[in-house]
Amino acid sequence: MNIFLKTEDEINLMRKANRLVGSTLAELGKHIKPGVTTLQLDKIAEEFIRDHGATPTFKNFPNPFGGPFPASICTSVNEVVVHGIPDDKTVLKEGDIISIDCGMLLDGYNGDSCYTFYVGEVAPKIKQLLSTTKESLYKGIEQALAGRHIGDIGAAVQEHCEKNGYGVVRELTGHGIGKEMHEPPQIPNYGTRGNGVMLKAGMCIAIEPMITLGDRKVWMLPDKWGIVTRDGKPAAHYEHTIAIHRGRAEILSTFEEIEHLERVNN
Fold first, then answer.
1. pLDDT mean over 191-211
2. Closest Cα partner for 202 from 9, 1, 65?
3. Stretch 22-34: mean pLDDT
4. C-alpha closest to that of 181 among 216, 208, 148, 210
5. Across the chain, what does the average pLDDT equal?
6. CA 20 to 30 Å from 177, out of 145, 162, 197, 203?
7. Within a 10 A sphere around the Cβ of 54, how many other Cβ atoms?
8. What are the pLDDT digits (tens) for 84-112?
C-alpha cells in the first residue's frame, strides 16, 4: 500500500480544488426545494464545475460491478445512503433529505465533499440524525493528528453515533485522496483506538460518516451503484477532505457557504 504524502504546493492545490467543491455544493443548495428533480441538480452541478475550469470526476467513474457512473454528482435521497444516480423520475418533496456527494479535478488534484440537505421542513428525528452525523465528522477530524492512527478516527465517529442510537455503515469508507480520487488508505467510520495506519504529515484523506436512523445493514440497488438501508429508514452522509498539515488536521473543503445559506433561509 503506497500512501502518497503531499508537499506544501500540492496541499495548496488540493485546498483550491476542495474549496470549489464547497462552492458547488452551496450553489446546489440554492436550488434544493420540493418539485426539483435530481437530474436538474446534476445539470446545474456539471455546468458550475466546468465553468470554473474543473472536471467532474464522478462522471464515467468505473464500477467493478457494472457500468460507469453516468452523472457528475451522487444524489442520495432518504433511505439511499450513497451513490444515488440523478434522474428525471426522482422528484424532491417536502420532508425529504438529500445527500449530495461531489468530486472534481482541478489543476491535477481532486476535491471531494458531501453534505446532506433538508428539503423544506423535515421531522425533528431526521434533523437529529443529520446533526449527530455532522458532529461525528468533526469528532473524527479532531483525531486526525500526526502520530495518531486511522482507528482513532473511526472510533470517534462510531462512539458518537452509536451512543445516540444510530447505525454506522461498515461496507463503505473514506479514503486517501490526491492526484487520484481514491488513494490508500481506507478510512472506516468504526474502529479501535490505536489501531491501523499511523497518520503522518502530508497525508490527505476524505473522512465521510455514513450513518443510519435504524439498522446499519445495507443493500445494493439493481443499478449496481446506489446503496440503500435494508430497513428503508433514512441515512445521512457528510464528508470533508482534510490534510495532516503541520501536525494537525486542516479541513480543505468547506461547509461555510452552505451553512450561511441555511441560516439565511431559516
1. 97
2. 9
3. 98
4. 208
5. 97
6. 162
7. 21
8. 999 999 999 999 999 999 999 999 999 99
What percentage of the chain has pLDDT greater than the value 90? 95
Of 208, 198, 204, nearest to 151 by C-alpha is: 198
The β-bridge partners of 100 are: 75, 115
What pLDDT sits at residue 227?
98
Beta strands, E only, 152-229: 167-168, 174-176, 183-187, 204-207, 210-212, 218-220, 227-229
**Rounded to an integer, what distance in angstroms lies between the CA atom of residue 90 and that of residue 113?**
22
Alpha-carbon gap, residue 74 to 218, rounded angstroms = 17
Count of other CB atoms within 10 angstroms of residue 89? 7
**Helices and strands (H, E) in the chain, number of each type:** 5, 15
What's the gap between Cα 240 and its chain centre? 6
Q: Which residue has the higher pLDDT, 261 or 244?
A: 244
Which residue is it, cell 492526484? 179
DSSP-derived 3-state class of residue 222: coil
Tell me if 113 sits within 8 A of 184, measured CB to CB: no
What grid cell was written down for 71? 452523472
Amino acid at 56: P
Q: What is the pLDDT of residue 1?
A: 75
Q: Which residues lie below 8 Å from residue 147, measured CB to CB, with a gap of 6+?
A: 198, 199
Domain ranges of the chain: 8-265
Helix, strand, or coil here: 37? Answer: strand
The strands making up 210-212's β-sheet, listed across from edge to edge, are: 167-168, 210-212, 235-237
Domain 8-265 in CATH 3.90.230.10? The answer is yes
Instruction: State if pTM tops 0.90.
Output: yes
